[in-house]
């Protein structure tokens, strides 16, 4: 069954923030977070990418919240977290995630990441290998041989948003991120609804800063060989950047990795195949829990 992203679905997304859910890090930065779902020893942590905010995940985790404790948060320089000037050192994102998990007392979470946030999940698991239950990586932007392709793409997007603006960036990204099903059947109403939210949630300065930050990450493939946590590598079957073949190349150099593709979706399967996205995370978590 094809889940097309429609304007009606986009308009119905719950994007409301919850008052009081902010913690202050040692640096004085405030990070917005959410915790919901059931009281469970197993926690799924949704790491935001450059373009998403924490409340959006509530719309894609309805079923997961009936089985697990769910945590989401806003990156610094995004959403309700502290806005900053200048490029953010990637290590600061790692420290922020660490602060959220420590504040909430989360132990051995399953980190779920998409697109560029798969870099953050990878780096966190390398920094704290004994404190991660598993990594669910959707549309990973790294590969088994190096990062030149990723960085050229980011440089292209950075040039667009800097020289033209956020609307031009959205227009460039839209036919890449979403599958032909959404672009064709969602039509102009879905395009306009998604564009409206993209522009509302991302200023030109934020986009520029966050894209610049992603260029500071080292893409050495040897990092993948050092990951000890179980890893799920997944992508929509119509992902513009990540093919099943690329996922299998990555899995081949990792100690404990498995590969899945999600039908009828592109680079953002949580939008286009929400039910399968949730089911995929659930299968992965259950497969790694001790009997």
TrEMBL record:
Coiled coil: none annotated. Residues 57-278 form the AB hydrolase-1 domain. Transmembrane segments: none annotated. InterPro entries: AB_hydrolase (IPR050471), AB_hydrolase_1 (IPR000073), AB_hydrolase_fold (IPR029058). SUPFAM superfamilies: alpha/beta-Hydrolases. GO terms for molecular function: catalytic activity. This is Pimeloyl-ACP methyl ester carboxylesterase. It comes from Nocardia alba.
């Amino acid at each position: 069954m094809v889940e097309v992203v429609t304007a009606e679905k986009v308009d119905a997304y719950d994007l409301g923030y919850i008052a009081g859910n902010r913690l202050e890090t040692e640096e004085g930065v405030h990070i917005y977070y959410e915790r919901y779902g059931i009281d469970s020893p197993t926690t799924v942590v949704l790491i935001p990418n450059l373009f998403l905010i924490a409340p959006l995940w509530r719309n894609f985790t309805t079923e997961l919240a009936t089985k697990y404790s769910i945590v989401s948060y806003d990156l610094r320089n995004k959403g309700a977290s502290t806005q900053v000037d200048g490029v953010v050192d990637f290590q600061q994102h790692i420290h922020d995630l660490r602060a959220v998990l420590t504040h909430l007392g989360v132990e051995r979470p399953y980190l779920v990441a998409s697109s560029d946030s798969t870099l953050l999940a990878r780096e966190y698991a390398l920094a704290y290998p004994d404190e991660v239950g598993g990594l669910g990586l959707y549309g990973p932007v790294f590969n088994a041989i190096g990062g030149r392709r990723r960085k050229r793409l980011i440089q292209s997007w950075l040039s667009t948003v800097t020289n033209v603006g956020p609307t031009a960036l959205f227009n460039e990204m839209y036919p890449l991120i979403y599958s032909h099903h959404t672009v064709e059947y969602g039509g102009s109403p879905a395009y306009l609804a998604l564009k409206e939210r993209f522009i509302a949630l991302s200023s030109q300065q934020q986009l520029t800063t966050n894209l610049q930050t992603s260029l500071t990450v080292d893409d050495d493939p040897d990092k993948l060989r050092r990951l000890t946590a179980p890893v799920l590598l997944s992508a929509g079957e119509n992902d513009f950047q990540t093919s099943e073949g690329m996922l299998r190349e990555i899995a081949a150099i990792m100690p404990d990795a498995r590969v899945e593709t999600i039908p009828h979706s592109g680079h953002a399967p949580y939008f286009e195949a929400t039910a399968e996205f949730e089911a995929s995370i659930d299968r992965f978590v259950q497969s790694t829990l001790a009997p």
